[in-house]
Amino acid sequence: MKKTVLVSGGAGFIGSHVTVELIEAGYEVVVADNFSNCDRTCFEGVKKITGRDDIPFEEMDFCDAEAVDKLFGKYHIDAVIHFAAFKAVGESVAKPLMYYKNNLLSFMNVLEAAQKHGGCNVLFSSSATVYGEPKSVPVTEDTPRQPAMSPYGNTKTMCEDILQDTVKASDGLIKGILLRYFNPIGAHPSALIGELPRGVPNNLVPFITQTAIGKRECLSIFGNDYPTPDGTCQRDYIDIVDLAKAHVFAVTRMIEGKMKEPCEVFNVGTGRPVSVLELVNAFEKVNNLKLNYKFAARRPGDVTAIWADPTKANTEMGWKATRTVEETLKAAWAWEKHIAGK
Ligand code: WQD
User: Fold this and answer.
1) Domain ranges in the chain?
2) Residues 175-199: tens digit of each pLDDT
3) In angstroms, what is the span from residue 201 Cα to ligand 1's centroid?
């Protein structure tokens, strides 16, 4: 019988790609979302890509404990992947309570319901943000976490701890995996799903593609005086489909009982540092266009350089990022053209 995976926040950027990969790997998926930060386009795209018009869908808010409890009663859930959360760093500084309430409560409701309904495998979408400004790069899972730089980042650190503690106290009922994502970018090669930022994008790649299509006038590269080879910040940009596949490996590892500890942590990155300028140049080259950009002041809170040591995910989970930055930037551009109707 097919195993069932609940994807909270499954209509969003990462959730929709993960839903596709899970279905293609033979899982039944229950998608739940309240569309608070995404529209219905991506879920429609998921149906088209998978050829499945009947994916179980629940429109609900994970802060509603009763609704979450009902959900766990309605389906037999073998694993849950929790994405339902707010994710804008700047907004979290302005509205900390909104972030703490939404991101912590929704996750605690999932854990409580999972426990009440007989236990579950829980995968939490964490972030490399928990490493802060690392003392050395690349970072392994043992690199110490640093105090978060924003309420958003703090909710990731806190949810990591909440899961670790809950697993410890659960007598084997709850098992957990924390996936620490580096910088997810790109879109599905079908160009039917991708990132749909609301308003002015905070993240680099949507800003690049929107500038290239003419929605934004000019990209500001935040800082060119960092102590890096070309003076711009370095990140580990990971293709969204590669990232989505890591979830399939993690879920399978949990369901097949292959975990070595009841709560495991994995970096999900490529191990390849890329600077802002290198990314911009690669985008121009692979898509054969010129991007309007200028150097601007540093953005407060940015770390100079961070990239993953993905050895643990490569060897333990058997997952490895396969796509080149060029392939990913082509897909990002195809998606931007798709949403612009071009
Ligand atoms: C990447 C690089 C910028 C925009 C954030 C979150 C993190 C995670 C992913 C989200 C930096 C530079 C950007 C622009 C620029 N989670 N940049 N001009 O900051 O590494 O990580 O997103 O849910 O938690 O903090 O990603 O894409 O914002 O920036 O020069 O207009 O691009 O300075 O060096 P970041 P990013």
Assistant:
1) 4-185+237-268, 204-235+271-339
2) 999 999 999 999 999 999 999 999 9
3) 10
| 342 has a pLDDT exceeding 90 | no
Class of domain 4-185+237-268 as given by CATH: alpha beta
H helical segments located in 2-135:
13-24, 41-50, 65-74, 89-94, 96-116
Q: What CATH number is given for 204-235+271-339 in this structure?
A: 3.90.25.10
Token pair 């073998």: residue: 78
Structure tokens at 138: 């690349």
CA separation (Å) from 91 to 80, 202, 247?
Answer: 27, 10, 27
Q: Is the pTM here over 0.70, yes or no?
A: yes
CB atoms within 10 A of CB 86: 19
Pocket of ligand 1 (CB under 6 A): 87, 89, 127, 129, 183, 202-204, 207, 219-222, 233, 235, 276, 299, 302
